[in-house]
Design goal:
Helix content is about 25%, strand content about 20%. The chain is built from twelve helices and 21 strands. Strands 13-14-15-16-18 form a five-stranded antiparallel beta sheet, sandwiched between helices. Strands 2-3-4-5 form a four-stranded antiparallel beta sheet. A hairpin with a 6-residue loop joins strand 11 and strand 12. It is globular. The protein starts with 14 loop residues before the first strand and ends in a 27-residue tail after the last helix.
């Protein structure tokens, strides 16, 4: 009698003991201990999950043909080539750390004296218990393929000379030909998984000296199901150029393609993209990118990408940026200034500009590309025409310098007053975030509407809105000496009733008294309010706003769909 394994519970994660694996056995999904620098100097050993693998980006003037040293690396005592190990990089997520700290690290920082945890296999439905147990046992012994999925692994280049040829042209499908053709293009792949590919770009399909090396392509990471050579061995496809992409693909293949591609759309529930930028210099500030942003692939994996702080154009070198600045005449965001206020104490002058995405298409796209570096849940589209952008700047004699912005739909069916909101990292923790939020609600008051930010909010966005809602609601309750309802609070503040109720629940303001629920400000909530008021944050002066709600005709709301 055969007993089936129930769906749902996962099998234990297979573990490989130290000494039973090498750098080239590590693949995406594995968890391994790595050395991580800590602030103040020194290093710590921390568990990290490998999300992607690549070969270290080569210099821009590097030859596309591998040298003899790359093909025949020097061997060390442990049997691995140090020169090859230094060229391998892992994109890792540090255990118990925020996702924005994910980064590319060198393979030399892997601690091989600690256990390696393989991806946890899932029990397939309808299989025998004995078979599942045998699979788990075989995987725990150190076999990376025992999890039931043919996942590619890194291969030592010294072993690749004996690799099986890819086969004759007559036996290779057109899809495989496109894969091999795209594999011989530019260097520095973000996908970075082991693959069989031609050693030289000019090799034809008839040659039999194919070799397996670490990925060097630059295009989109994409898997092809069922790609095999003539001898039955699995051929791991190289990254596909979008021009060679097939007209159809499975769901898993499409997700894998989106993780590394330059598409401006993403599914936030399924697609986890690999960060492609290191640092961004904008004006006098240099910041580190947090997340993936679909900048052109030619700009990916540079040490620093240089941005013009006025037109937000992007350049690969300081020289090209300097040449651009000599001809760039823009000194403020290309829109109408709707607010300007100067702080008498600090002398800081702040302005807000309203920008129509339909009129300033390029500038708004550049702004979206920049903001995607710091927003994980932002969905980008090439079409920015349905949105209005409200950009906050600080002003001096040199011009208006970008601090943050928020966007809103011209026509929102859900009455959202914010679609996307961001304060640049170099200006965070200075009170600018609450200033952006307050300005969005002042516009909602002018429109005589209730407004709410579009969901889901990022982690920092949720903290900012929660703090603002708490401060405004408690301030209103303190100033009001009569009975007040949730609906009246919403009408006075332009915060939706759902957001008001959620904030009151978070603060514990609802009390059951004489058969009904009443609002009662607790001592703890009052302490939070006093601490917030003591910071004397920046405030919007409503009388300084010069703005009327825009009215769009039906033709103006057609965006070329």
């Amino acid at each position: 009698m055969v007993h089936t394994v129930p769906e749902g519970p996962l099998l234990p994660a297979p573990i490989s003991a130290p000494g039973t694996y090498t750098i080239f056995d590590i693949r995406a999904g594995c968890k391994v201990t790595m050395r991580r620098p800590i602030p103040g100097g020194g290093e710590e050993e921390r568990l990290a999950e490998v999300l992607s693998i690549r070969q270290k980006p080569s210099p821009r003037n590097a030859s596309a043909t591998p040298s003899k040293a790359e093909v025949d690396p020097p061997e060390t005592a442990n049997g691995s080539g140090d020169s090859v190990t230094e060229q391998i990089e892992f994109f890792v997520h540090w255990h118990l750390f925020n996702k924005r700290l994910d980064e590319w690290v060198s393979a030399t920082r892997v601690v091989l004296t600690k256990d390696l945890e393989w991806p946890r296999p899932k029990a397939p439905p309808g299989t025998a218990t004995t078979a599942a147990t045998a699979t788990a046992t075989a995987t725990a012994a150190g076999s990376p393929a025992a999890s039931g999925t043919a996942t590619p692994t890194l291969t030592h280049p010294a072993v690749t000379k004996a690799a099986t040829p890819l086969g004759r042209a007559g036996s290779v499908s057109l899809l495989k030909k496109a894969t091999i053709a795209s594999a011989s293009q530019a260097l520095s792949s973000p996908s970075g998984i082991g693959q069989k590919r031609k050693e030289h770009p000019d090799d034809t399909m008839e040659e039999d000296d194919g070799a397996s090396i670490v990925s060097e392509s630059v295009g989109d990471g994409m898997e092809l199901d069922g790609a095999e050579s003539d001898d039955g061995s699995s051929v791991v496809p190289a990254a596909l150029d979008p021009r060679f992409a097939p007209t159809y693909m499975g769901k898993e293949t499409e997700i894998e393609k989106l993780r590394h591609s330059g598409s401006m759309t993403q599914s936030v529930n399924e697609v986890q993209r690999v960060k492609n930028l290191n640092r961004i210099q904008i004006g006098k500030n240099e910041v580190e990118a947090w997340y993936f942003s679909p900048y052109p692939v030619e700009y990916a994996y540079l040490d620093v990408i240089f941005l013009c702080e006025f037109c937000l154009g992007y350049f690969p070198s300081q020289f090209m940026l300097g040449r651009h600045l000599k001809s760039c005449t823009l000194r403020h965001p290309p829109g109408n200034e709707v607010y300007r206020s100067k702080d008498e104490t600090s002398g800081e002058e702040i302005s807000f500009f309203e920008i129509d995405g339909k009129r300033q298409n390029t500038w708004c796209r550049n702004l979206s590309l920049l903001s995607k570096c710091f927003l994980d849940h932002k969905t980008l589209y090439y079409d920015v025409q349905p949105f209005l952008y409200y950009v906050m700047t600080t002003n001096d004699v040199h011009g208006c310098h970008l601090v943050g912005y928020f966007s809103k739909e011209k026509e929102s069916a859900e009455n959202y007053n914010v679609a996307c909101i961001l304060t640049l990292p170099q200006h965070q923790r200075k009170g600018y975030g609450k200033l952006l939020i307050e300005f969005s609600y002042e516009l909602s008051k002018r429109e005589m509407k209730l407004g709410s930010p579009e969901k889901p909010l990022s982690d920092l966005g949720l903290l900012g809105y929660k703090a603002y809602w708490m401060e405004i609601i408690i301030e209103l309750l303190n100033d009001c000496h009569d009975d007040i309802s949730i609906e009246e609070i919403a009408n006075r503040t332009s915060i939706t009733q759902n957001d008001v109720m959620w904030t009151c629940q978070q603060l514990g303001l609802f009390k059951y008294y004489k058969g009904q629920y009443v609002l009662c400000v607790t001592d703890q909530a009052m302490e939070q309010y006093k601490r917030a008021k003591a910071k004397q944050r920046k405030r919007i002066k409503p009388e300084r706003i010069i703005w009327k709600p825009p009215v769009f005709s039906r033709d103006q709301l057609r965006f070329g769909y």
